[in-house]
Amino acid sequence: MGRKHTQSVAQAKDIDHCSDGLQVETHMTRRVRVITETWETPLITSYDLRLIDGGQLPAFTAGAHIDLMLPNELIRSYSLTNPQSERHRYVIAVQKDRASRGGSKWVHEALHPGNVLVIDGPRNNFVLNETVEKSILIAGGIGITPLLCMADRLSTLKRNWELIYCSRRRVDMAFIEILARFGERVRFNFDEEPGGKMLDIAAIVRAATANAHFYCCGPLPMLAAFEAATAELPRERIHVEYFSAKQQPAVAGGFKVVLAKSGREFTVPPSKSILDTLLDAGLDIPYSCKEGVCGSCETKVLEGAPDHRDLILTPEERDAGKTMMICCSGSKREKLVLDL
Contact 9/299 with Cβ under 8 angstroms? Predict the structure, then answer.
């Protein structure tokens, strides 16, 4: 799984470096204004966000996301879709989820041109390797959002790449006009239109060149098929972005969490996560998705054995036990000491 480490100290200023020499600032909140909202599909709307003073936004790399601090006290992560060369704006696209927990529903109903909101980031857990001989991008539905930025970046660099964009019907596809500019590098798959069928991801993997890198973002069934099809490939060639959890969080509770910097100690009760326990105690902890898919709450572990439930850490990082996502992961022992 492609990822880039992020620090998890509240309100810290982290500096990462883009491949083109630009610096990327993370964990810094800023106020932006909605300039335009664009109807992409019946359920997907894109938003052009710019600093209220008209200045430059922090640089970002393809695959990055920002957090929206919504007025209803929710925090939601959305991928940046516009070219990473743009510094004057961030563009996100939000799909209205029928099972929305309040995030996408609020955005679609309340976010309009002229509105001001607070954002955090950008951060990138879905990093594009710009140096490989071939990149194969596979998108499903709203999963096109980070891959659109990747396609633009690879095109700018004149790399060898292709994108397969899957949807039930053509009317459900966003950014068709933008993607058309890439010509034959992009192909579409409609599984519910006449003659359509589900994309055979395993066949795509078999037909790829020996050193190709694969990127996939979409619904859970597609990601499961992708991981099965690429299971035998070297891990560094496989890059996945999840928008939702694929397993339940660790909320059995019954263990102690010690915060090394303050010396404070908490008992995590049953049915609560470490993050919720600390938030209820009034601590200022960075977080967003609460599902272990965004990396915002990544925290260093100084002692103990985390029960990992996230979709960010690699197997090697999980085995090392040096860091964890406290929104969804628990403890296998009676005590965890965190670098907080």
Answer: no
Angle at 85 between CA 3 and CA 212, to 5 degrees: 45
How far is the CA of 22 from the CAs of 92, 106, 246, in angstroms? 21, 34, 34
Q: Exposure pattern of 306-330 as b/e (b: 16+ CB <10 Å)?
A: bbbbbbbbeeebbeebebbbbbbbb
Residue 289's pLDDT is what? 81
Structure confidence at residue 276 (pLDDT) = 92
> Reduced to 3 states, what is the DSSP secondary structure of residue 327?
coil
CA–CA separation, 267 and 277 (whole Å) = 8
DSSP 3-state of 221: helix
Of 95, 98, 173, residue with least CA distance to 139: 173
| pLDDT at residue 99 is higher than 70 | no
Cis-peptide, bond into residue 146, ω within 30° of zero: no
Residues 6+ apart with CB under 8 A from 310: 292, 293, 324, 325, 328, 329
> Residue 27: pLDDT band by 50, 70, 90 thresholds?
low
Taking a C-beta distance cutoff of 8 angstroms, is the pair 56, 66 a contact?
no
Three-state SS at 254: coil
Domain topology for 135-241: Rossmann fold (3.40.50)
CATH 2.40.30.10 at 14-123, yes or no:
yes
- Per residue in 153-180, pLDDT tens? 999 999 999 999 999 888 899 999 999 9
The CATH code that applies to domain 255-338 is: 3.10.20.30
Backbone angles phi, psi at 33, to 5 degrees: -115, 140
Among candidate residues 48, 116, 112, the one with its CA nearest the CA of residue 82: 48
Q: What is the pLDDT of residue 74?
A: 84
> Distance between CA 118 and CA 32 in Å, rounded?
6
Q: CB atoms < 10 A from the CB of 279, how many? A: 15
**What DSSP state is assigned to residue 143?**
G
Q: Minimal CA–CA distance to 180: which of 193, 165, 190?
A: 165
* Residue ranges covered by each domain of the chain: 14-123, 135-241, 255-338
The pLDDT > 70 percentage for the chain reads: 91
